[in-house]
Structure formats: C-alpha cells, structure tokens
C-alpha cells in the first residue's frame, strides 16, 4: 500500500467516544440503599441491646432454688468393722512315735474323736518282747540287791557291793520304762477331741518314726483372726463383746481374747482374735467372717447415701446451707451403715442439708433454700 493510501485511511478514521448509559447509574443507587439499610439495622440492634439484656441479667443473678432438710445430730454407737477368717481352736498333725507296720486302723477320715481314742495300731511283737526281757532283768537286779543288803547287814559284805547292786537295779528299771514306752508308742492316739480331717495310713502299710498319719482339727470354739489398722487398735479392749457374721450367713456373739502389741512390719496392722462358741461344729474353720465391735458413742446425723457427694479433692461430704443462705461443704465420715441410710459425723449439731439441687450448686454460692416437703425416713425406718 502506498503512503497516500495510508494517509487517506488515517484521515477517514472515525474517533471513538463514550456516552453515559442511562441504566448504569441504577446499580449505584441499589448499593447505596443496601448500605443505608444495613446501617439502620445495626443501629436499631445497638439501641435495643440494653432493653434486651436487662431480663437476662436478672435471670443470671437469681439464686438457685434448692430443697433443704434440717437435721439434728443424735447419739450413735461407733462400730469398728474388720474382715477376718475363722480358724480352729487347735489343729495338729498326729505323728508316728516309732517305726513299724500298721496292723489296725479303727477309725475313718471325717469322724469326731475324743482325746485318747485309737487312730492306728502298729505291730507290737518286738516292743512286747523287750518289755518281757526288761522285766526279767529287773527281777534279777532286785534279787542281787536283796542279797547284797543281807550280806551287808550280817557284816560279811562291803557297802561298795551294795551300791553296785543298787545301780544295776536302777538301770534295769530304766530299761523297763523305755520298753514300756516303746510298747505304748505302737498305739497312735488322738491328743485331743476334734474332727479327723486327714488319715493317711491303712492296715498293712509301714510307717517311719516322725511321719504324719493323721490331722485333727478342733473347731469348738472357733477363733476368728483379723488385722486391725494402727489408728483403730487403741479402741479395742480385751474381754469386750463382738458380733461375728460368717460368709455362710450365721451370726454369733464372741469375745475379744487377744489384741496384738506389735504391728506387722509389712502392713502396719495388729492381730485381733475373737473367740466364738461352736459346740455343734456347724461353722467350719477357714470361712471368711466380718467382725463388728462397738467402741463407744459419738454424735452423728442420719442421712440417705444419695446425698453424699465428692469435692474436687475426692473427699466425701455433704452440702449444707448456712443462716446466710450460702452453700457449705462439710467432709464427713461414715460412722455406721443401716439398711435405709447411714450415720455420718463431721457436721454441726444442727444443719440444713441440701436434699434436692446439690448437684447444681457449689460451696460459697448463695442459694434460695426451700423446705423439703417429702417425708424422709428416720434412722429406724419409720416415717416422721
């Protein structure tokens, strides 16, 4: 293309121009209206905030309503409860005093024997022969002693011969005693009355000296042994009564017969023994038992276990309301438990205990206490 053509083209070019679009200003007005509405809405919310917050502030500051029960402390026996085990009054292994063959076993395992009853007999032929020989030796020694004495009396013998004859007689008599004891040892007897819990020999067997042939257990009376904590042992006195409940269901009254004076080095507890009569042998040794000993009286409140709570440290206690309507938490100790409630110590003599709503309030908080209109059981289970 020539330069002339280019010039003509540039001269004839139409200049571009921009005009206002009538619809372009509509979006601007819409945006302005939206901003004004938003400002108005926020302003109305700020202005009405005080009126709306006022009732909520009133609700937050209103004390929580709780139900309370006025409780007055009463006297109750302090009871020490420990777990123990029944043990026999006596228990022993019956040993063979000599070796020999068993020729008779007149009893059976499980029977009750009396002191001196025969449990087994050993072959006595050897001991009987030794007894006869010892008896003959004693007779000979007695003759020699009489002869020596007569000679001394007539003056034809010396005192030395008499002394020698006397020593020989004493030795013969000692041998006879040993032989008779050996013969007696062929009969194995019960050392005391009790139940034949074990019997380990039969006729025809050979037993060695010192071997156990039976075990006898005396369950009348029973001795219940338990361990008592060091902070409680000073409250127990020998000779006082104790109630013993066995795991089998029987309950017996016993007597404290022993309180240890030296603590176990491992557990720091003291041995306690309670004797319980068991003439009918209905309670077997080895069963578990619970010992209850009244150790005095104290003041306590009777409450439902459901009212007990734990604080942030895990201490057991009750929530009460003071005269200023402020909640307090009192740590308590369970003194005694009954079927319908527990006796607790640690509260004032008279206290207003929270019975409803205790889970929604904390110590130091002001509450609106209302009397609990429900009929609450008393300590003996009757309705007030």
Your description of this structure?
The protein has 4 domains: 22-62; 64-76 and 298-371, conserved putative lor/sdh protein from methanococcus maripaludis s2 fold (Beta Barrel), CATH 2.40.420; 81-87 and 217-297, Beta Barrel (Elongation Factor Tu (Ef-tu), domain 3), CATH 2.40.30.170; 124-185, Helix Hairpins, CATH 1.10.287. Helix 4 packs antiparallel against helix 5. Strand 15 and strand 16 form a beta hairpin. The protein has helices spanning 3-12, 26-47, 49-60, 125-154, 159-184; strands at 64-72, 74-95, 100-104, 112-113, 118-122, 187-189, 194-199, 206-207, 212-229, 241-246, 251-259, 269-276, 288-303, 309-310, 316-321, 327-331, 333-338, 341-345, 350-356, 367-371. The protein is elongated, with a radius of gyration of 51 Å. The strands form 4 sheets. Strands 2-9-12-11-10-13 form a 6-stranded antiparallel β-barrel. It has a 4-stranded antiparallel β-sheet with strand order 6-5-3-8, with no helix packed on it. A 3-stranded mixed β-sheet has the order 19-1-20, with no helix packed on it. It is α+β, with helices and mostly antiparallel strands. The chain starts with a helix and ends in a 13-residue tail after the last strand. Mean pLDDT is 84; it is low at 1-14, 45-54 and 380-384. The longest helix is centred in the middle third of the chain and has 30 residues, at 125-154.
């Amino acid at each position: 293309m020539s330069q002339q053509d280019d010039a003509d083209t540039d001269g004839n070019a139409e200049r571009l121009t921009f005009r206002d679009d009538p619809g372009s200003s509509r979006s601007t007005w819409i945006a302005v209206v939206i901003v004004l509405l938003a400002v108005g809405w926020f302003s109305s919310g700020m202005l009405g905030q005080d009126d709306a917050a006022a009732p909520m502030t009133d609700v937050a500051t209103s004390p929580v309503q709780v139900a309370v029960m006025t409780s007055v402390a009463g006297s109750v026996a302090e009871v020490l409860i420990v777990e123990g085990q029944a043990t026999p009054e006596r228990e022993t292994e019956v040993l063979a005093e000599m070796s020999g063959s068993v020729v008779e076993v007149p009893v059976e395992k499980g029977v009750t024997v009396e002191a001196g009853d025969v449990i087994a007999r050993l072959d006595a032929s050897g001991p009987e022969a030794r007894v006869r020989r010892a008896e003959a030796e004693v007779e000979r020694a007695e003759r020699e002693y009489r002869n020596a004495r007569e000679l001394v009396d007539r003056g034809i013998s010396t005192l030395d011969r008499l002394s020698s004859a006397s020593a020989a007689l004493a030795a013969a008599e000692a041998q006879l005693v040993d032989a008779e004891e050996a013969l007696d040892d062929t009969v194995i007897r019960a050392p005391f009355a009790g139940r034949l819990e074990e019997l380990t020999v039969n006729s025809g067997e050979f037993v060695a000296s010192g071997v156990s042939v039976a075990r006898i257990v005396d369950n009348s009376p029973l001795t219940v042994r338990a361990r008592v904590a060091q902070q409680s042992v000073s409250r127990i006195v020998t000779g006082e009564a104790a109630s013993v409940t066995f795991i089998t269901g029987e309950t017996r009254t016993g007597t404290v017969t022993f309180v240890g004076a030296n603590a176990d080095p491992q557990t720091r507890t003291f041995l306690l023994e309670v004797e319980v009569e068991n003439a009918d042998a209905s309670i077997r040794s080895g069963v578990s038992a619970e010992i209850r000993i009244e150790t005095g009286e104290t003041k306590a409140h009777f409450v439902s276990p459901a009212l007990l709570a734990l604080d942030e440290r895990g201490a057991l206690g009750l929530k009460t309301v003071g005269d200023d309507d402020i909640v307090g938490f009192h740590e308590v100790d369970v003194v005694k438990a009954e079927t319908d409630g527990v006796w607790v110590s640690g509260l004032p003599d008279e206290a207003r205990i929270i019975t409803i709503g205790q889970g929604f309030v904390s110590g130091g908080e002001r509450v609106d206490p209302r009397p609990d209109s429900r009929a609450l059981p008393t300590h003996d289970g009757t309705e007030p």
